[in-house]
């Protein structure tokens, strides 16, 4: 057994079988994938990685399975799934995900892409794991929702961790009480009534972290710039989307730099923090057109053309509402199981607040902001006086 | 100048004039008034006092006035008001307040009761303070709402402090950002748009702390027991309500013990944690009668009689909704001042959530719970199956 | 089972048998005994009590016994001993201890004074505990040093806790690693080599907390004033030393106040923070006489007489070196057990540093400081230029 | 003005002139230089960078100069020097420093290498800074020791920061009190007597962080492997040492990978955590030869040859004692200035403890450990039974 010092959960006890998984190149690659993409452009301390997050999720899972009444092998399988749940994360985490999703219909939950070959495949086989079942846990398709569910080990860890590294207090919630108030009905997490406030508190943290950190306009701009550079390389035939599953932050930056031209320009802007600026940034309810009918690429082309700007330098960013599965977590009240949003008016309000916080953005280099701003406002039928200075 | 180590705000710089105020017996008395009454019966770390809270509020006020454009004398007056805002707090803080309020129409904001005599009067006069103006700041009747307003120095400190000492994470919010995003319009606090999330976060903390700590049923039971013992002494003619302004936790406990009989029994129950239990505890929306028309004392008498229990051993606890002035804090959005609850759907939801969290309680010693429970359910026309196990 | 929120160790799981002990009046009394006496006169947050410390020591003991290879009954006995190790603590903790020690040869480890009667006796009997063995654990006379030893559960808790409540960072050390690096040889705690730095770190914390907090001159002055008032009451025949085992901070303050005269004057000085001041405060190596041959009472009498001051208003405070048993903790290096001070030059240096930090003090009310100062310097043959301004 | 959220010091107020410096490519490069090299191989949270550390040192400097009695321009110059003090740091910080030091006699304090050209040169000129004076502050050659001295802004920040990100409590010390107890004699930092414990505490933190984190054997092994790969590239003529001043972690890793052969093998070992292991690891006092006379490269060659191993796969790591300038910080005791190590026996002990903690290491891939171990023990005349298992 080995001890690893985690900044969030303290000393982690790492058993031999875990070491074997951790020591594979596939897992070590997570050391080079930043947890929240380019958030360190805003929060300079946010340099944490999927590696430490994965250890943290494993730790939370370990504490949860302890109180499940299942046999040791099944517990180990769940814990290992927690450890490996992000093994297929892409460079800069979510920042390159949509590129792959759009082309291949795959995302970071498609861990089979990684687990079915290489050293990790051999190690899992030697340890006797049933990889098929692990994949089900990770995708939320098994009968147990510890790894992926409405309130799960993943969410508990990332809120605490992202809060520690950004310095934003919002991520602080009462994790220990929440974990203690989780009971298991079959293999499903249910919150005991005494944990209601802690569960609400987690959802609120999540909402505040989304609007303050994850959806900070600088994070969104950097992410969109990065996506667009990747898209360019793919369209030029220089990058196969599937390769991204085996790249990391280091190799991707290097690849883009070496590509020259547009990708090189974008990556240098990211590295030197010469980012695109907001030409338009408004609450979606201010938008006069139906956003569901707008294809962002087309919109970019049209706005660029009208503004007389190279289309590669106009980005249209239409936000999507998170699916909000957390709202459906189950709470045990007076012997009955109810949905969290049934029991808590606060949670119901969060849905509303989330919708209201969505912003449409159009980004372009500083020198084009005026031109693009005017055209974009027209295109989206926005009264420009609504241009938000909110965040 | 002197340094005092505060657990929440770090080293506080205490100027000479502050020391003069702090060193009066009137201010030192605050060392012996616990900040959140009997909460230490549930949260063993909650032994903090009005003394340290007062220093903390002064510190927050000091940081706030720094950016007001008023002259130094006025700043000093506001800071001194912050320091003294709780000088008239009563034994076990809010736990003895309603007794005084009912009889004399005075509460802890009537600082004139304390400031107009004794050493403190002399010190304030020697320092050249205008006590009348200070009282206005403390009561929220001046043109400046730093000490008492919707979002004020008091609230900022108590949430952080109560969180530290109870160990309940809910009180954690982004105080530093909030303070930095406060601007002054005349002498009124206004939240800049960039501080909206921090302000929401404060209100949420407050809500969660209320339901988890301040309104924890054990805290409420202990408080009500204590109140009833004080009422008894007053009715027997052994205690004048006004005396409570000069008593502290130590002297009050001792007085009740020395009174013998019922007060002694109650205080021993408090000291030995042999508290009354919940005979009824239901959400007020489950109650079948109009609570506005019920006088708690009458209700206690009637329930006791029907249950065949001494009326001194039945407590009816009808909660009141806090006035929610925080919801009315002003936010500066796009050059316009708006009310916080106009701008934030989350804040609007909190009002609703607060109402839903109100519980009616009837408490009695363990051995009478069954009898009283049945009668009380009848009295309040409550379907007993709704008896809440929620918190 | 019940959960208690501890500010230091998080949620504590309290089993039924623990609740039975905690709910006795003897244990509840610890709620009213402040952990570090009058330290709150300097550190306003230091209002924590022996009650929460006792829960904390129990928690550390629980974590330690988990890895001992002994049967469950013995584990429970050790954990219960940890819970009860301070049950005989006296009002304001160490502040009244020497009074009892001098007269009766008893101190707070003589838990038999409390455990052998009252409700606690019955509860322990009903739970089937062997009280004799528990007493041995608490006094450090058993074959197991978890509760009392060189590095034990008590020390680990109090450093962390006193640090949290004073706000002094010095108490922070790597407790989790230390606990993880403890191995058991028979039933004795031994530090594995990998925990050497953590053990050093604990000793350093202890040293810094002693010099900064526990031996802060204001704490020492208040303690000595309190002791002298108690001594006075005993000599006048108004207080039997043994009674102190059943008194608490509240009742003692009240008793002194009610005594009138000198005790009343002292207690009012303590309550209103009108403390004695330092007439002399020098490193003991500056002292020109042999302190071992000086009886403090005699010295007080003589200095008072020469200075023309009432002897009750002169206090001579000759510090004693702590016994430093921690230095003798065992460390496992390369298969061999060695003493901590053998292995660590840093630890050896602490002994020296401790000796050098000892200060002789003579205290008296402000108005007598000049007179007493001169006489005291003569009496102790101190060159007054050495009068320390160090702390 | 802009606000940046720092995890250690809270919200930093960034003035316009600071933004201009921060926004240069030279400063942005610090985002890609990890603060403590390969320490994240042991402490997975240690991904922080020279970028955020530089902001932190600026903040500490800002707080310090506030109380100096010098004009605003000079204050600004010192604060700017603090911001730029690490601008010439090399890839993976100290991990590539010795390579440059050995060849060019330059280290990260030779900021002139960076400041004298590029965008940063222009920005500093436009802002009117005297670069010559700034360099003097950074090298500790000016009349002010805020940026570099015995106890300086740099040390205060890195201990706090490294502690936060490694999760090792040892770095916690009482920074706020220390800063408050600093007085200025001319432009030199002097610790007021009341800050003695805080200063001791900083030195102890530094010692514990050195032995626990910075000199953790895995950190040393990774660093030495990296150095050896760089040396190889230089000797092969593929890398000019001076280029390293403009490279970062990303580009260096990429360069080594692209170099193929030995450097590629080393970098893959680092990325996949297949590190060399300790063939010998002993306290230097156990070594039977005079280490001052040993050239590490020669030793590597000879040991490799005798063991029949490729010399590129044997590393000899002879530690150097830090110069310990902190021990010479000045303390103001009774009106006199004394050296810290004169006043504090604890500090004197640290010197000794530091010497005793030095370890000689010989590292090689796992498969050669046995062979190399035997030969190395002979070469250094070490009794192998002393092989340390200490850390």
TrEMBL record, chains A, B, C, D:
One of its GO terms (biological process) is dGTP catabolic process. It comes from the Archaea. CDD domains: HDc. SMART domains: HDc. Residues 50-159 form the HD domain. InterPro entries: dGTPase-like, HD/PDEase_dom, HD_assoc_2, HD_domain. Pfam families: HD, HD_assoc_2. One of its GO terms (molecular function) is dGTPase activity. This is Metal dependent phosphohydrolase. It comes from Archaeoglobus profundus (strain DSM 5631 / JCM 9629 / NBRC 100127 / Av18).
